[in-house]
Specification:
The chain has 363 residues and is an alpha+beta fold. The protein has 2 domains: 132 residues, YerB-like (YerB-like fold), CATH 3.50.90; 132 residues, 3-Layer(bba) Sandwich (YerB-like fold), CATH 3.50.90.10. 14% of the residues lie in helices and 28% in strands. The chain is built from 5 helices and 20 strands. The strands form 3 sheets. Strands 1, 2, 3, 4, 5, 8, 14, 15, 16, 17, 18 and 19 form a 12-stranded mixed sheet that branches. Strands 9, 10, 11, 12, 13 and 20 form a 6-stranded antiparallel sheet that branches.
Length: 363
């Protein structure tokens, strides 16, 4: 009996030791904080702007776009804010000049301008973004649209003067400016906040159909427009620098040149409106047509289709496939049929001069 009790005591001691060892060594090391992503679930992708596919926040890309008319007469250069636009249209107006329609979604420039008046073709292009349409007055033909169409969020300086200011270092009318902050405050005050009902498609990806080299492009808008545009591709920057009348196009606020990643040449019919005292141009952006697409130093032919004033323009290659837009700003040049687009061949590189032998000066 004594031996049995001794054996039982020893057995209890051994089991106790094993149990303590299990408590000390059997547990794993403390784990790192749990991940917010469940096992097997891919990490959440960075939000991108649906227009230029650059990084953005969900709040920035779910708000109302701003579509701003910006002047391009020589007295208005350099402009402010164009370098932060997702998409920019350039088209003729009258008086030998072009004008810009700049679309801002995820960037908020502190200065935008000079702001100028509306034209019908720019109104019909702005509709594609369901934006607040920003301008200062309008042509007679544009007034006929804005006065009867309540679907247009008409942010006119003539109605909302406090949203704009005059820069007295420039001469009027080339000195009217605004800011994204002031415009968005006005949008909120008008209860125009909200996600746009539609946006054009500038999706990246795909391949260039039958690409041709295009590193130096000369554009003439023809007719009464006495203004030259040159686009020169920079492989290091991955985009095209703009030269207007042989001057590099820069931003007035930063003095930085404007880099364009994608260029769409949309060939359009144009003619002065009948009985227009100022010979304002009617530019037809509804319908179908052809053009060219430039990106990455290459070009391909394109087709454009806009079935009605409310529908977004669809751009495709000649096989009816999507164009390979790159992330970054897209500029759409509305070049009349009477204008021209010339792809220039790079000039041959001049031979390096022979080194001049070093000679000691004569004694």
């Amino acid at each position: 009996m004594r031996n049995f009790l001794r054996f039982a005591a020893i057995l209890i001691i051994i089991l106790g030791v094993l149990w303590l060892a299990g408590c000390r060594f059997g547990k794993s090391k403390p784990s790192s904080p749990p991940s917010s992503t469940a096992p097997g679930q891919p990490a959440q992708a960075q939000a991108v702007c649906p227009l230029d596919h650059e990084p953005a926040t969900p709040e920035e890309i779910s708000r109302r776009p701003l579509a701003v008319m910006i002047e391009n007469s020589p007295q208005a250069r350099p402009q402010s804010g164009l370098n932060q636009a997702c998409v920019v249209y350039e088209g003729i107006t009258e008086g030998g000049i072009t004008r810009f329609l700049a679309i801002f979604l995820h960037h908020d420039p502190p200065v935008i301008g000079p702001v100028r008046s509306a034209r019908p073709h720019f109104i019909n292009l702005a509709r594609e973004f369901d934006p607040a349409y920003v301008h200062c007055g309008e042509s007679y033909e544009a007034l006929q649209i804005l006065a009867i169409d309540p679907s247009i969020r008409d942010l006119d300086q003539m109605k909302f003067g406090a949203t704009f200011w005059r820069d007295h270092s420039r001469v009027a009318p080339h000195n009217l400016y605004t800011s994204a902050a002031r415009l968005r405050a006005r949008v909120a005050a008008q209860h125009w906040d909200g996600t746009p009902s539609q946006l054009p498609d500038f999706q990246p990806g795909g391949k260039m159909l039958d690409p041709a080299p295009a590193t130096d492009i000369a554009i003439s808008f023809g007719g009464a427009v006495h203004y030259s545009l040159r686009l020169i591709y920079d492989p290091k920057a991955g985009g095209y620098w703009r030269y207007m009348d042989r001057h590099l196009h820069v931003d007035r606020e930063t003095d930085q040149p404007i880099l364009v990643k994608n260029v769409v040449i949309e060939r359009v019919w144009d003619a002065p409106f009948a009985n227009s005292k100022k010979e304002t141009y009617d530019v037809e952006v509804v319908g179908t047509g052809r053009g060219l697409f430039f990106t990455g130093g290459q070009s391909t032919a394109l087709l454009w289709r806009k079935p009605d004033i409310a529908s977004p323009t669809v751009y495709s290659d000649l096989a009816d496939d999507a164009l390979p837009f790159q992330p970054g700003p897209t500029w759409i040049e509305l070049v009349p049929l009477g204008g021209s687009v010339t792809i220039l061949k790079p000039a041959p590189k001049a031979p390096e001069p022979a080194p001049v032998p070093h000679r000691k000066p004569a004694a």
